[in-house]
Amino acid sequence: MENMEKKLRLAVIGCGSIAEIAHFPAIKKHPGVELTAVCDFHEKRAEEAASVHGAKAWFTDYRKLLDTCKLDAVIIATPNNWHRNMVIAAANHGVHILVEKPMAVTNGEAWAMVEACKKNHVKLMVGCDRRYWTHNQWAKKLIDDGVIGQVLMSRSCLHEHWYNYQNHVAKTDFRLDVKATGGAAINDTGAHAIDLLTWLNGSKVKRAVGVAERLAMPETYTRNDDTALLMVEFENGAYGTVSCNRFSPAVNQNTELCGTQGTIFTATDATNPFQSWPMAVYTDRKYTSESLPFELKNYRWPELFWVEDQIDEHVRNRWIPICPPRFPNNYERMMEHFFDCIINDREPLTSGEDGARAVEVMCAVHKSMETGGWVDLPLKEEIVPRGYEPLPYEN
Ligand SMILES: NC(=O)c1ccc[n+]([C@@H]2O[C@H](COP(=O)([O-])OP(=O)(O)OC[C@H]3O[C@@H](n4cnc5c(N)ncnc54)[C@H](O)[C@@H]3O)[C@@H](O)[C@H]2O)c1
């Protein structure tokens, strides 16, 4: 930012559901941020968003917005196929960017976005909000501190029927249109699970294999995949699996990390009778109640430990259910981090490179369906997912 005394001048492009849920509320809450302009090619939605959220100007063409307004940062929350052109245009205008997940549809698009931001010295952050849930951040810290030893095997899943979001929350039907998305279970929900698992493992994906197919929904509803299963090998030798679907009426997002000295579970969107806490940790490392990591000591439930700690010198080895504070929520923390990165010149946790690597995994799965085997990363060619029709490049 040129002048730290001034408010950060921000625009939102795409005034749909996620902008309403995550972006506008966070902008309103932050005293150092001003909503300079909004853009949506649905004219009424743009006008309404400007009026409700107090933007000084509204546009239906993002290029006009970028040419007209003096901005520090922009949030891009449009359908996936628009991300590439919009990010590169914003970068060429010297504006910092938060782009929603999946960052792009093809690996070629994703790396072109990263390059444009590098060239223009602007920050690029991807809206992978799962990393900003407190329990996932605590899991990362506990893993990095060695509480469960070396993670060798892990899995992350996100199972959620189309109808939950598509019928009740989304403002448009773009998710159903394979020409605009290039996938659904594999890259809409998969973008979250792949990113989360990679980050928690602390290593890059070396190779991937998997399937992404439409098993549940009729072609008249969508041509996108609704079932995706994949396996990855990380550079550090560990293995992970990701499963996502768009047909389970019971929502389930959970992640399990198996280490040589323990296991961590986290559950984000919902819990079920088999996993009724947002987080659980088993560690066979020896802790006293004094040496127990902060997160385990202060957020252990139920409160049986107040007696156990008197009886046992060492904390008993057993599953420790943990209920971290719920607020500020994942989106608030993600947005706060984005503003902080710009105002205080920090590097985003969910960087453009991370987003591009996740897109590589999704594209590798498409490639592996053709070859029937593992696909090495980084990819050597651009993979265009089945049915995807990239927009003409505007820049
Ligand atoms: N991080 C998350 O948890 C999360 C959740 C939902 C959506 N998303 C992502 O956010 C993006 C948007 O999803 P959504 O659910 O808000 O969609 P949506 O259908 O609710 O809204 C999309 C909006 O973009 C507008 N739009 C489309 N093309 C445009 C263009 N060329 N210029 C300007 N406006 C345009 C539409 O008119 C609509 O208002 C997607 O990439 C999606 O994957 C992320």
Question: From the coordinates shown, what is the CATH architecture of the largest domain?
Answer: 2-Layer Sandwich
- The Rg value, from CA coordinates, equals 22 Å
The SS-based structural class is: alpha/beta
The main sheet comes to:
9 strands, mixed
Q: Which hetero compounds are present in the coordinates?
A: nicotinamide-adenine-dinucleotide
Helix/strand order: EHEHEHEHEHEHEHHHEEEEEEHHEHHE
Query: Multimeric state of these chains?
Result: single chain
The name of the CATH topology of the largest domain is Dihydrodipicolinate Reductase, domain 2
Mean of the pLDDT scores? 95
Total E-strand runs: 15
Number of domains: 2
Please give the CATH class of the largest domain. Alpha Beta
Strand order of the largest sheet: 14-13-12-11-7-10-9-8-15
Detail the poorly predicted runs: none
CATH superfamily placement of the largest domain: Dihydrodipicolinate Reductase, domain 2
What is the distance, rounded to the nearest whole angstrom, between the alpha carbons of the first and last residues?
25 Å
Percent of residues in β-strands:
15-25%
Please bin the fraction of helical residues: 25-40%
Structural features, described:
Helix content is 35%, strand content 21%. It is an alpha/beta fold. The protein folds into 2 domains: 8-130 and 332-349, NAD(P)-binding Rossmann-like Domain (Rossmann fold, 3-Layer(aba) Sandwich); 131-328, Dihydrodipicolinate Reductase, domain 2 (2-Layer Sandwich), CATH 3.30.360. Helix 1 links the parallel strand 1 and strand 2 (33-39). Helix 1 crosses helix 12 and helix 4 (83-92) runs parallel beside helix 5. The protein starts with 7 loop residues before the first strand and ends in a 19-residue tail after the last strand. The model has no long low-confidence stretch (mean pLDDT 95). The structure holds nicotinamide-adenine-dinucleotide.
